[in-house]
Amino acid sequence: VVLRASQTASVAIPVSGWTIRSGLTGVYATVPLAASPFVQGVVNSVDTITLSAGEAVLLTSGTSPVGVSFRETTCTGYLSQTQRFSPPLSNACTRPSVLLPRSPAKEAQYGTSCFDLIERLPQCTYPTIMPSTITPACRSMLTDALSYGGCMRSYEQGAVKHMNTWRAYQSSANELWGNSHDTLVLLDGYGRIVTTLSY
Questions:
Q1: Is beta strand 162-169 parallel, antiparallel or unpaired with respect to 56-60?
Q2: What predicted TM-score, i.e. pTM, was given to this entire model?
Q3: Closest C-alpha among 23, 68, 15 to residue 188
Q4: What angle do CA 192, 196, 199 make, to 5 degrees?
Q5: Model pLDDT for residues 124-150, shown as the tens digit of each residue
């Protein structure tokens, strides 16, 4: 289920704690707290999902592939290399050639063929097959930089941007609403009806 703030919304809308109720089963799904940004290898701190104009939260009944709900960034596309997301994550990573720009000093350090390879790489991708002309120093640099962790180190330097999409997970082993027909009721944090959807 996708909840999207109107493009004309004049204020940010905190949606964590809102619920979606199935008219068919009576089951509730609650919009959880989320990490912004998600950090690998640590217990993430979570906070309220707040939607500004045009932003959306994708509410999924299953478990998060990374163990927590999170806001997409220009690094999250790298997570798709090791985990499966449905629907797929945005492939909006900073291009490798921008993340690792060519310069005479860097070519002297890592080799010309290293930057030739970097300029051919697609976004959000670590090269699994490297030419034999790549130096060990280049391999080490690519391993460190072209991954989620390497991209997020750029976050600390202001190079990583937040996207307009949040991924929220219910961690339910069962489906929460009917596939072919149901009436979903969206309730705010006070239990007031925001909208309904019948299909």
A1: parallel
A2: 0.86
A3: 15
A4: 160
A5: 988 888 889 999 999 999 988 899 988
